[in-house]
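Dear colleagues,

As part of the handover before I leave the project, I'm documenting each prediction I ran so the next person doesn't have to rerun anything. This entry is a single chain, and its sequence is reproduced below.
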Amino acid sequence: MSARILVVDDIEANVRLLEAKLSAEYYEVLTASDGPTALAMAAAEKPDIVLLDVMMPGMDGFAVCRRLKDDPETRHMPVVLLTALDGRSDRVTGLEAGADDFLTKPIDDVMLFARVRSLTRLKSVIDELREREASGRRMGVIAGAAAARLGGTGGRILIVDDNERQAQRVCSELAIEHRPIVETDPTNALIAAHGPVDLIIVNAAAKGFDGLRFAAQIRSDETTRGLPILAIVDDDERQRLVKALEIGVNDILPRPIDPQELSARVRTQIRRKRYADYLRDNLDQSLELAVTDQLTGLHNRRYMESQLDALVRRAVVGGGDPVALLVIDIDHFKKVNDGFGHAVGDEVLREFAVRLASNVRAIDLPVRFGGEEFVVVMPDTELEHAHRIAERIRLHVAGSPFRVLGGEELLTVTISIGVAASLGEGDDQIKLVRRADEAMYEAKVGGRNRVIAKAA
């Protein structure tokens, strides 16, 4: 998987060396020699990864990283800090600034490409979610929400480690800010991972089980595939570290474990998971709102047309049972709006939707078609049976007044219903809707508050 990578370093020789290595692996490389230029390029060019030198004059790498993570347009970009320093305090400072990882100079090519591939996979998932969420915003079905407020504390953490002393030390450290539990048995841990978990920490060097195989099982299960995994690996176990990244581990915690680095890496992973969850939730909301009428809670016309088309095709072409359709219009609805106002009109529509939904079968699809007009799609239903259901709906609506204005006013509401069913070869969705619509108008012309079925 290729990617666009922004390399930031004030020493040109370092930039050219990295550019040559990355280009040879078919990555597209952008370069900047100082912090302000890097920030401007990140905003304009939208790179997939930022490789950022720490020691730069003026604005150092820590400051640039903080600025990138504070900006809603760039905070999702993975940042890897490049440094000649290998001190604990520098790693913690960088992680707290929002960095995803560190690479120590001189840079190990194998580690560089393993990290780039891992972060590219992560970025592609986030990009897809962001793109779908943006589509929802353009459609007007997602309102703005403050992703910036998503925190990295209070997480539910599953620690999978048969080194009980190490596991309890990690658990005690994390319990200050989070809700950790320890599982020493990988089978039990796989079960626990299907529960409410924000992060899995696994000992890749466990004695009683293969920690990397456990991580691979988590990644292969659709239910747990999106859970972030932090693997504990000895710093000198280069092969195991690279393999962990290749199978989809999100981050590496080097051993011996530093408490501050542990806390910083855990907060980063939990914050990122919450951001991905936030995007997925917004996507689910956008899909729901795109096919739902917001006033009544019924499905809307867009959803109905796609479902009805498939049902009619199955009935006509596939030789299945007929599909019936009810087209329903609330009688004299304009008088309700004119006499009581649109707020009362909305009350009537909502109450009617409840009565409609409660008087059809579980397999039927009640829909607000538009205004005061509703439709019920009835799979595997003959015309005669649809007529009986329509009559039941009519009686239920007309037989009990609608309470509006907090129950202070009772309104008698009636409806006119047209019924039609698919006819077999040569029929289609448009013809079916037209027949039901014509029948509904016959009911209105004939005096309203009645059901008319149109056989052909």
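Confidence is low (pLDDT under 50) at residues 139-144. The longest helix spans residues 259-290.

All the best with the project,
I.
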